[in-house]
């Protein structure tokens, strides 16, 4: 069957067709659409695939490992920084190995379209010593997902599938394959493999080390990595992922006689690289999306006389995503004739929606914070991070999921008052709860302002794990009930919100103020649905 | 046949509906298609664009190179100008003339429109007003814009109309007909 699919959707469709039993994920751009696509399929025609959102990437990874332990196929999806959250589970899943196929999808965001860094998940695959696959187009994304499950089951290892923003969010026609059934439940033959006591873990790790040549051999023989000798094999281009498309685009415009090695599967295919060397390569240009992973590795694999060029040498930009333009220039082609940029154009940064509850929350918070000589407000990850910009300029920090709570605590420990955290409901349950327990255990003098819009807003309104239970959660973690306050962020309630904030700032201990009003985007959607 | 199209606007304006209709018509013609979209944070009222590429030969790159676009289709006039570096020297700008002002430093709109008029190949139209005149709601402004772009897309008018009928069929005749009226209103501006 032919379908027009986003890269993300192609992966989702392939996972379902490969006999998936569970997808585990926390929303994060550019990975969100994978789980949403499977949820949509399940809502139309239920097949028993587990597809509810997880509380964070670590719980997702662990649940997926549990699904795999029982012999069934599981997919874990996240944006690149989610890999940091699940790293403990991910690294150790490489040591336990798998029973049912386990594929970990990491969607990297070079150029930081919607992220705070551009870390490259291929490093995680190398770190964990497991195979990694990187598609260049939607059809490859589909085919490689199926292959990833097969490879995982055959080699008993988790497999990392790595995409980048342009792969995830670009659409094209995909030809789908025959769907296959889910696995029956089965327990691992060797239970000790999943018990990482040092004695067992040492044996497992030795097995993982011993399996490395098999992983390389797969990279050489599976046909995903392709070496094409050019008429001038002194020059070669080694390219991966979306970079391959920009290379082809330039080649279509003008013939090229270099050799080309397309890398789609890692670890790097030693035999193909040796062949490139044997063919007399003297100069290699590496075109890869993300950090210079292949470029660094190649330097250790080819003779030092070979000139390896790429992001490290400035032939391509050191930072940011590749573009057809940067690749053209690196290949030595002239830029196309075009128009000068128009200087009249000004930036249009994203902003909180008109009518959004975060706006009223920040208005109140800013007014109260100004009453104190040196308020410090620690922000977090979500739409409300936009409170850093005009007109609010409300927050002094934003680092990663949950950091607002614990940074406010650390600041309070250092003597800061008022130390205020601003965190969304979904981010709070993702990674803020444990920090709040730290606050309670040392009776830190902090105010934790949970801006509760009843959803995971920035990624498009997915379910939030703690909806309806935030007061209970805070109370259960030990926050004094009298210092858990709930307000409705609306202009008419401004004085009440400010009074609550003032009182809780003046209280010497842990306070939680929940500013609760539904996200304006999900509200619109719910009203529309109610009309139908 | 090959058309590289940049769709531009502000998050929430509905540029992806235009892409969906063009894509539907293109696939029905047996053309290859690639469409890169923007999702995530920038959708919150920021500038958004989509690169839509159509060709009768396989397409490699997901993104259009600078100087490679045949046409910029924009729901907002300043947003049309944001991408002129991507436009071929003789490429077309087809844009709504109604500004969306959600920033304090939006430039003088008359100057913006004059800059657009400085391009040899341009179509400027008031999409909201034309939608209303055609008896469609203001939300059909994107279909007016699509109509105005049809002559430059390399796909027959009638085949594009059929594409709209297929895309909106499940929303019922009222929606289909009001969208068709909006498309015709835009088309008439361009062919005049």
What would you note in describing this structure?
Chain A is α/β, with parallel strands linked by helices and 532 residues long. Chain A has three domains: 2-210, 3-Layer(aba) Sandwich (Rossmann fold); 226-330, Rossmann fold; 357-524, Rossmann fold (3-Layer(aba) Sandwich). Chain A is built from 19 helices and 18 strands. A six-stranded mixed beta sheet of chain A has the order 2-3-4-6-5-11, sandwiched between helices. A five-stranded mixed beta sheet of chain A has the order 8-10-9-12-13, sandwiched between helices. In chain A, α16 (425-441) links the parallel β15 and β16 (446-452). In chain A, α15 (403-413) runs parallel beside α16 (425-441). The model of chain A has no long low-confidence stretch (mean pLDDT 96). A six-stranded mixed beta sheet of chain B has the order 2-3-1-4-5-6, sandwiched between helices. Chain B has one domain (2-190): Pyruvate-ferredoxin oxidoreductase, PFOR, domain III (Pyruvate-ferredoxin Oxidoreductase, domain 3, 3-Layer(aba) Sandwich), CATH 3.40.920. In chain B, β5, α3 and β6 (122-125) form a beta-alpha-beta unit. Chain B has 192 residues and is an alpha/beta fold. Chain B starts with a strand and ends with a helix. The model of chain B has no long low-confidence stretch (mean pLDDT 94). Chain B is globular. Chain B is built from seven helices and six strands. At the A-B interface, β7, α10 and α13 of A face β2, α2, β5 and α3 of B. β7 (170-175) of chain A pairs antiparallel with β2 (32-36) of chain B.
Q: Compute the average pLDDT of chain A.
A: 96
Query: What's the tally of helices of chain B?
Result: 7
Count of individual helical segments of chain A: 19
Any idea what the CATH architecture of the largest domain in chain A is? 3-Layer(aba) Sandwich
Most extensive chain-chain interface: A-B, 50 and 50 residues
- Give the % helix of chain A: 40-55%
CATH homologous superfamily assignment of chain B: Pyruvate-ferredoxin oxidoreductase, PFOR, domain III
